[in-house]
Structure formats: structure tokens, C-alpha cells
TrEMBL record:
<dbReference type="InterPro" id="IPR000453">
    <property type="entry name" value="Chorismate_synth"/>
</dbReference>
<dbReference type="GO" id="GO:0005829">
    <property type="term" value="C:cytosol"/>
</dbReference>
<dbReference type="Pfam" id="PF01264">
    <property type="entry name" value="Chorismate_synt"/>
</dbReference>
<dbReference type="InterPro" id="IPR035904">
    <property type="entry name" value="Chorismate_synth_AroC_sf"/>
</dbReference>
<feature type="binding site">
    <location>
        <position position="337"/>
    </location>
    <ligand>
        <name>FMN</name>
    </ligand>
</feature>
<feature type="binding site">
    <location>
        <position position="296"/>
    </location>
    <ligand>
        <name>FMN</name>
    </ligand>
</feature>
<comment type="subunit">
    <text>Homotetramer.</text>
</comment>
<protein>
    <recommendedName>
        <fullName>Chorismate synthase</fullName>
        <ecNumber>4.2.3.5</ecNumber>
    </recommendedName>
</protein>
<comment type="pathway">
    <text>Metabolic intermediate biosynthesis; chorismate biosynthesis; chorismate from D-erythrose 4-phosphate and phosphoenolpyruvate: step 7/7.</text>
</comment>
<feature type="binding site">
    <location>
        <begin position="129"/>
        <end position="131"/>
    </location>
    <ligand>
        <name>FMN</name>
    </ligand>
</feature>
<dbReference type="InterPro" id="IPR020541">
    <property type="entry name" value="Chorismate_synthase_CS"/>
</dbReference>
<keyword id="KW-0288">FMN</keyword>
<feature type="binding site">
    <location>
        <begin position="251"/>
        <end position="252"/>
    </location>
    <ligand>
        <name>FMN</name>
    </ligand>
</feature>
<dbReference type="GO" id="GO:0009073">
    <property type="term" value="P:aromatic amino acid family biosynthetic process"/>
</dbReference>
<comment type="function">
    <text>This reaction introduces a second double bond into the aromatic ring system.</text>
</comment>
<dbReference type="GO" id="GO:0004107">
    <property type="term" value="F:chorismate synthase activity"/>
</dbReference>
<dbReference type="GO" id="GO:0008652">
    <property type="term" value="P:amino acid biosynthetic process"/>
</dbReference>
């Protein structure tokens, strides 16, 4: 069983992820994780916090000599802003609980509901953990899963396909994965469509000038998945259910689609279902992929296609109305530091949580304490599925 817990606050000393169940013998370097952490911090439209942080991971257990040992991994990402907050966030009795107290809930955030739930009169206790800064730990953990999948020739990629009203052209999924990754890396908004990407940048700049924010849509693609991951036998074991839950757990994500998604609701069955064919050198296959690589709660061997919608960031330069929880007086909330658009960063997080969930179902199906065992079992299963 692959398990992960993250801990840490936005302005605490660090974020930590503890990973249990990672098999022994997986090649893993901190520099590999740092590449994904840097991607999470990038993208046109980010705010001032990204000028402070330069995320790097420290692997403090579970790896020796560049290989995982089978013991729990501990990943630590330091917060460089910590020295400015050490008195406010001090865990001891001498903490400064007054100078940065938060009594004015921000619309669209966890502030007010979290305060009611846990009885906090200072909502800093809520916003420090509900912050999307937490996703740095999840990207670090998901990158370990990505590394495991790569060893099995399963590749995860993603791109932004919409920001505000600007939409990218549909992606040709026959595109070489390396070319796709290069096109996304060369875009300031992580969009493989250069024309749409340029328009997205202009849209973000216009929103920033107006003191507003933008949401959007990103897609995650997974190449090389064998059929049969997930299950139809119990609904909590369906692959699409688990992946949807993982993507919906990302801050500000409000909708998830698999394959054709909501467009399938407007189509007739004869138009949307992927017909099945057979060829001796290929086995069973489909010429279309409206199902997005999942049928009956299981991967079907096609490219996995997931799509997630992110709402506009609710922390705005443009004031929004709210009410102070102590005085009950209305006020207009405004901020000095915020992202205008974080959809590119959310795409990286989406790739990470997808990789984590897929690594979990791979280990559930194939088992094994070492990468050698797992690779052998996956290869045998692929041969079996092809010759079925």
C-alpha cells in the first residue's frame, strides 16, 4: 500500500511529506524532484510569494546511494519566508498572536468555515494550512510516483488548455511525448498551442491591470497505462473515481472530466462510445478515445485523458465585501500580494496527484517490494493483455 501524509503551514519553517510503501531500488535524486517544484512555481500570472521562495527538496530518509531502500521517505521543502514569520508562527507560548491576527474572512477561501469548524477566533490558524502553498509537498510526493511510473514506461504530461475566455486548439495525442513536453516548457502559461498561449498572457495582463483574477482548465495525459488498473467490483475502487477525487482535492478545482466529459451528455450513444477492433500484432484497440482511457472504472489501455477546471483565485486586489468575525461589521477586503492566475501551477499539481494515484493502483495490482519484481510483473501482464 502506498501512503502519504503532508504537514506544514504556509509561513511555517517547512513543508513535509512522508511516503510509505515506495518499493526498494527506485532511482531517485533530489534534483529530479526540484525540477517539478520549479515548474509549480512558474507560469505567467504568479504573485510576489514566488519571488521569495526557491523551492528545493531535502530527502532526509528512505534513499541511500541514489536508490530507495523500501523504508519510509521523508521529503522536506523549506519556506524561505520563515524568518519573517518565526515570531508569529512560533509553536511556543511566546508566539506573537496579535500582530498578524486574521479576523476578516476572505470570500472564496476556507477562512470563515474553517474557523467555525475548529473554533478559531484567529483565522490565521485556518489559512496557514488551507493555503495552496501546501501543494509544494504534494508535488514533491507526486514526483516520486512519477519516477516510479517512468520506470514502467508510463509517462505523465499536462498542459493548460484554457485561461479565462481563451481556449487552445485540441491537442494531437499522437504527438511525441518529448515534443509535447518541450512545447509546454517553452510556453509562459504551459500551453502547447503558441497562438493561444500568447493570447492567454494578454488575458492575464488585462486581469492584473483591473485588479482581478482568472481561472482556467488544464489537461493531464498518461501514456503507456496497461488495461485493468482500478476495478468495477466496488465503487470506491474505480480508477476514474479515485482520479477525480485526487484532482478535486487541489485547492480551487471545481470540476473534473474524463475523456469527452460533459460533452458526452449532448451526444448520442452511437457518436460517443469507442468501437473495439482487433489486430494480431496489436491486440484489442479502439480508433477513438472518447472514454479518456477508462471504461467501467478501469484503464482500458488507451491514453488517459483528464481535465480539471480551476476557479479564479479569490484573493484579489479588487476589494470584495465581507464581515469581521469579532465586530460583525462589514468591510471591503483587499490584498497586497496575490497571484493573478495560477492555472499553470495547478496543472503541475494535477500531474503530481494523478501520478500518485496511478502509482498506488499499480502497486495494488502488481505488488512487489522491489522495482525489479514490479517491472517483471508489469511486463508479463502487458504480454498477457496483448495476446488475450
Amino acid at each position: 500500500m502506498l501512503r502519504c501524509l503532508t504537514a506544514g503551514e504556509s509561513h511555517g519553517p517547512s513543508l513535509t511529506a512522508i511516503l510509505d510503501g515506495v518499493p526498494a531500488g527506485l532511482p531517485l535524486a533530489a534534483e529530479y524532484i526540484d525540477q517539478q517544484l520549479a515548474r509549480r512555481q512558474g507560469g505567467h500570472g504568479r504573485g510576489g510569494r514566488m519571488n521569495i521562495e526557491r523551492d528545493r527538496v531535502a530527502i532526509t530518509s528512505g534513499v541511500r546511494g541514489g536508490l530507495t531502500t523500501g523504508s519510509p521517505l521523508t521529503l522536506v521543502v523549506a519556506n524561505k519566508d520563515w524568518p519573517n514569520w518565526c515570531r508569529v508562527m512560533d509553536p511556543g507560548a511566546g508566539a506573537d498572536l496579535k500582530s498578524r491576527a486574521v479576523t476578516r474572512p476572505r470570500p472564496g477561501h476556507a477562512d470563515l468555515t474553517g474557523a467555525i469548524k475548529y473554533g478559531h477566533r484567529d483565522m490565521r490558524n485556518v489559512l496557514e494550512r488551507s493555503s495552496a502553498r501546501e501543494t509544494a509537498a504534494r508535488v514533491a510526493a507526486g514526483t516520486v510516483a512519477r519516477r516510479l511510473l517512468e520506470e514502467l514506461d508510463i509517462l505523465v504530461a499536462g498542459q493548460v488548455v484554457q485561461i479565462g475566455s481563451i481556449k487552445a486548439r485540441a491537442l494531437d495525442l499522437t504527438l511525441d511525448t518529448e515534443k509535447l513536453a518541450a512545447a509546454v516548457a517553452n510556453s509562459p502559461v504551459y500551453c502547447a498551442d503558441p497562438e493561444a498561449g500568447a493570447a492567454m498572457v494578454q488575458e492575464i495582463d488585462a486581469a492584473r491591470a483591473a485588479g482581478d483574477s482568472l481561472g482556467g482548465v488544464f489537461e493531464v495525459y498518461v501514456f503507456g497505462l496497461p488495461p485493468g488498473l482500478g476495478s468495477y467490483t466496488q465503487r470506491d475502487r474505480t480508477l476514474d473515481g479515485r482520479l477525480a477525487g485526487a484532482l478535486m482535492s487541489i485547492q480551487a478545482i471545481k470540476g473534473v472530466e474524463v475523456g469527452a466529459g460533459f460533452a458526452a451528455a449532448a451526444a448520442r450513444g452511437s457518436e460517443i462510445h469507442d468501437e473495439i477492433f482487433y489486430r494480431s500484432d496489436r491486440g484489442f484497440y479502439r480508433s477513438t478515445n472518447n472514454a479518456g482511457g477508462i471504461e467501467g472504472g478501469m484503464s482500458n489501455g488507451d491514453i488517459l485523458l483528464l481535465r480539471a477546471a480551476m476557479k479564479p483565485i479569490p484573493t484579489l486586489y479588487k476589494p470584495l465585501r465581507s464581515v469581521d468575525i469579532h465586530t460583525k461589521q462589514p468591510f471591503e477586503a483587499s490584498v497586497e500580494r496575490s497571484d493573478t492566475c495560477a492555472v499553470p501551477a495547478a496543472c503541475v499539481v494535477g500531474e503530481a496527484v494523478t501520478a500518485w494515484e496511478l502509482a498506488a493502483v499499480v502497486l495494488e495490482k502488481f505488488g512487489g517490494d522491489t522495482m525489479g519484481e514490479i517491472k517483471e510483473r508489469v511486463a508479463l501482464y502487458r504480454d498477457y493483455a496483448k495476446s488475450f
